From TrEMBL:
GO molecular function: ubiquitin-like modifier activating enzyme activity
Pfam families referenced in this protein's UniProt entry, alphabetically: ThiF (PF00899)
InterPro entries named among the record's database cross-references: Bacteriocin_synth_cyclodeHase (IPR022291), ThiF_NAD_FAD-bd (IPR000594), Ubiquitin-activating_enz (IPR035985)
Species name: Crystallibacter crystallopoietes
SUPFAM superfamilies the record matches: Activating enzymes of the ubiquitin-like proteins (SSF69572)
Protein name: Bacteriocin biosynthesis cyclodehydratase domain-containing protein
Annotated ranges, domain THIF-type NAD/FAD binding fold: 120-202
Top-level division of the source organism's lineage: Bacteria
Length: 356
């Protein structure tokens, strides 16, 4: 016994004797369809047990053979229903209805189970300015169940925008303000505030077995935080805001992809003064104010959130895997720069350590 159901994320469009399911080049077109066929297709939209096929065909005034032929033609757009334990309920069922439809279309499955899995995911966010705060809110809105929030700075006027902060938040600790906004988005999300988790003396108490860490900063990564991320052995994604662009990535999966130190080594091969430059830039950045321009911040936060959700869902490999996505403010284009693990980087020892 199996349920026959058309992917809930795909549109069904009637066109003079034809029916199109799904838009774009991957849409499925059925020609020579009559009213009975349409009635049967709409029955499949809600789900139909295969043992009821003959009865449903009769109710739609088509033969059982015609119904079976339609089911065969629809094979590429049929999905298995989620188990009852994986179905959304309550507030999340209503709030995530657009997300369920979108990701069902993207992944070619009923995405209810994936959205339910997000509720069991834990993500640590380091850096909660205008951009980092927007990422935190996006993940909460997308159904991620646990968020660890870390930023010692206070909300300033330049942090206020379309993301996590409002004028009333100016002066509050950023992590506290983000937590307040998340509670307004979804009170079922579990939030915890951390402090200085990447300091060397805090290594023993660092969160482990996280699904993802997202580190947001400006210009270049902080060496202390980069080292802490590599030691933590959690997957992590960096997001850097610069004068003319934003860099999303790499998405680092320990032992499988290039890490932040790998990128530094590649850059240093091309520029012998790379490490000195990073030191000077980071020192100057610490003295300067926020660099998160409004539109760039929203776009970068959205792109980083998308990469994060793709990784958490585990269906498709994100574009930022072992690569950096460069969002250019001058024309809005996104470039992709892929990096291989550097042969001299210590991260290459991680697979052997994991196997031992």
């Amino acid at each position: 016994m199996a349920e026959l159901k058309i992917n809930p994320g795909l549109r069904l469009i009637e066109r003079r004797g034809t029916v199109q399911i799904g838009l774009g080049s991957t849409g499925l077109v059925l020609e020579g369809t009559g009213q009975g066929d349409l009635d049967f297709l709409y029955r499949l939209r809600t789900g139909l047990d295969d043992t009821e096929l003959e009865h449903a065909a009769g109710n739609c005034s088509i033969t059982t053979e015609r119904a079976r032929a339609l089911v065969a033609a629809l094979e590429s757009v049929l999905v298995d229903p989620p188990a009852k334990s994986e179905q959304l309920s309550g507030l999340r069922l209503d709030r995530l209805a657009p997300d369920r439809a979108h990701w069902s279309a993207v992944y070619s499955v009923d995405s209810s189970a994936l959205l339910a899995n997000r509720a069991r995911a834990a993500v640590h966010l380091i850096g909660l300015g205008r951009t980092g705060g927007a990422v935190a809110c996006a993940l909460a809105a997308a159904g991620v169940g646990t968020l660890l929030l870390e930023d010692r700075a206070s909300v300033g006027p330049a942090d206020v925008g379309s993301g996590a902060f409002r004028l009333a938040d100016v002066g509050l600790n950023r992590a506290q303000a983000v937590r307040k906004m998340i509670r307004n988005i979804d009170p079922t999300v579990s939030t915890h505030i951390l402090s200085n988790s990447m300091d060397p003396e805090a290594a023993a108490g660092r969160p482990r077995f996280l699904n993802l860490v997202i580190y947001t900063d400006r210009d270049v990564p902080n060496a202390r935080i980069s080292h802490g991320l590599s030691e933590g052995d959690n997957p992590h994604l960096s997001l850097l805001l610069r004068e003319r662009d934003a860099l999303i990535g790499p998405l680092v999966v320990p032992g499988q992809s290039a890490c932040l130190d790998c990128l530094d080594r590649h850059h240093a091969q091309a520029d012998p003064d790379w490490y000195e430059l990073c030191s000077q830039v980071h020192g100057a950045s610490a003295e300067a104010g926020a660099v998160d321009e409004v539109a760039q911040s929203v776009a970068a936060a959205g792109l980083a959130s998308l990469q994060s959700l793709l990784f958490l869902d585990g269906r498709n490999r994100p574009a930022a895997w072992s690569a950096v996505l460069q969002l250019r403010s001058a024309d809005g284009t996104v470039g992709r720069h892929e990096y291989r693990p550097h042969p001299e980087c210590a991260c290459q020892l991680q697979p052997a350590l994991q196997d031992s």
